[in-house]
């Protein structure tokens, strides 16, 4: 009993509103009122009884001489009522509803942590690439081959959306990572009805800073690497390629981030509680909020917008 009341107090610890506090006090009173204890029923069986109901009246019987026998020393105890059972069920349901938001928040923290780890691994691979290539950045688009194009993340063949062939092996960072599974952010919901595949499955969940990859540049040009974004959570709202349309826009992967202008589609994805994880050029991971007024109005619930131009442009 004390454990149940303690659970109520613990669940109420983070509640702020007066109405929620009243609700917890009511539950506290209900649990305190329903104090269960055990008693022996007929045949020695154990019964749960409630002090709200109390024991049943002791029964007397007549002996052979017609006189009333004394009531037994142990009264027959009464089991809990349906009302009390419903109260307990209601209390458990309320406790579960109080715990659910905390569980969901815990899951998102786990996904964010995995995303941060992915970006750190990609950052280490990028540093090794720079070291192997005389401090030159890799291109966003490296060229065309075998009927497709080689991007920084792999080879992608033209074709219908969701049906394109994809091979990550030609990607700039693939030799350093192989197939370690760090290319997909766990908070990018590929199962959503609002999502549209570009390839025949998930290809890449992060975008490369386009200003570093339009053509190779020396990393010595980067005066403040701790302030310049290398990779970031990326996505785009597509309303121009089937099955998307202006009346039915869909979310899709996108493979670069830039400052853009008013006519361009935003391409940073603020999918971690309205923030985006970003990898900076010095290898550390940080969070960015969307630039004011940049959230794409085509599908505002997905929080696709722009990063600050200051953290993207190379001086």
Order of helices and strands: HHEEHEEEEHEHEEEEEEEE
Shape: elongated
Strand order of the largest sheet: 11-7-8-13-14
What's the story with the biggest beta sheet? 5 strands, mixed
From the N-terminal CA to the C-terminal CA, the straight-line distance is: 66 Å
What share of the residues does DSSP label as strand, in percent?
15-25%
SSE class: alpha+beta
Whole-number radius of gyration? 32 Å
Q: Quick one: how many beta strands?
A: 15
**For the residues shown, what is the average pLDDT?**
83
Low-pLDDT residue spans: 1-16, 33-60
Q: Summarize this, please?
A:
By secondary structure, the protein is of the alpha+beta class. The protein has a domain at 136-311.
Describe this protein with a few key phrases.
alpha+beta; elongated; five-stranded mixed beta sheet; 15 strands; disordered N terminus; 5 helices; 315 residues
Describe the structure.
The protein is an alpha+beta fold and 315 residues long. The protein has a domain at 136-311. It is 27% helix and 17% strand. The protein is built from 5 helices and 15 strands. Strands 11-7-8-13-14 form a 5-stranded mixed sheet. A 4-stranded antiparallel sheet has the order 3-4-5-6, with no helix packed on it. A hairpin with a 2-residue loop joins strand 3 (141-145) and strand 4 (148-151). Helix 1 runs antiparallel to helix 2 (18-33). Mean pLDDT is 83; it is low at 1-16 and 33-60.
């Amino acid at each position: 009993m004390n454990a149940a009341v303690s659970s109520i107090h613990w669940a109420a610890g983070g509640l702020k509103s007066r109405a929620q506090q009243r609700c917890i006090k009511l539950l506290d009173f209900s649990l305190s009122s329903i104090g269960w204890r055990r008693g022996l029923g007929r045949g020695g069986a154990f019964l749960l009884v409630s002090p709200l109901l109390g024991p049943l009246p002791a029964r007397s019987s007549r002996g052979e001489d017609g006189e009333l026998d004394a009531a037994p020393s142990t009264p027959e105890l009464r089991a809990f009522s349906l009302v009390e059972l419903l109260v307990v069920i209601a209390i458990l349901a309320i406790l579960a509803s109080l715990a659910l938001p905390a569980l969901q928040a815990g899951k998102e923290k786990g996904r964010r942590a995995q995303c941060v780890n992915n970006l750190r691994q990609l950052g280490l691979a990028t540093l090794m690439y720079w070291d192997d290539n005389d401090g030159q950045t890799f291109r966003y688009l490296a060229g065309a081959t075998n009927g497709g194009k080689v991007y920084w993340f792999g080879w992608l063949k033209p074709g219908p959306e969701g049906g394109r062939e994809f091979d990550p092996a030609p990607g700039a960072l693939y030799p350093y990572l192989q197939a370690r599974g760090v290319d997909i952010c766990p908070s990018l919901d590929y199962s959503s009805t609002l999502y549209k595949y570009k390839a025949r499955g998930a290809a890449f969940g992060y975008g490369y800073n386009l200003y570093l990859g339009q053509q190779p540049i020396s990393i010595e040009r980067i005066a403040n690497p701790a302030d310049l974004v290398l990779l970031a959570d990326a996505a785009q709202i597509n309303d121009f390629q089937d099955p998307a349309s202006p009346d039915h826009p869909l979310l899709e992967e996108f493979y670069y981030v830039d400052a853009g202008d008013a006519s361009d589609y935003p391409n940073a994805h603020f999918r971690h509680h309205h923030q985006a994880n970003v990898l900076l050029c010095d290898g550390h991971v940080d969070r960015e909020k969307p630039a004011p007024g940049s959230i794409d109005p085509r599908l505002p619930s997905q929080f696709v917008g722009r990063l600050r131009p200051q953290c993207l442009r190379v001086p």
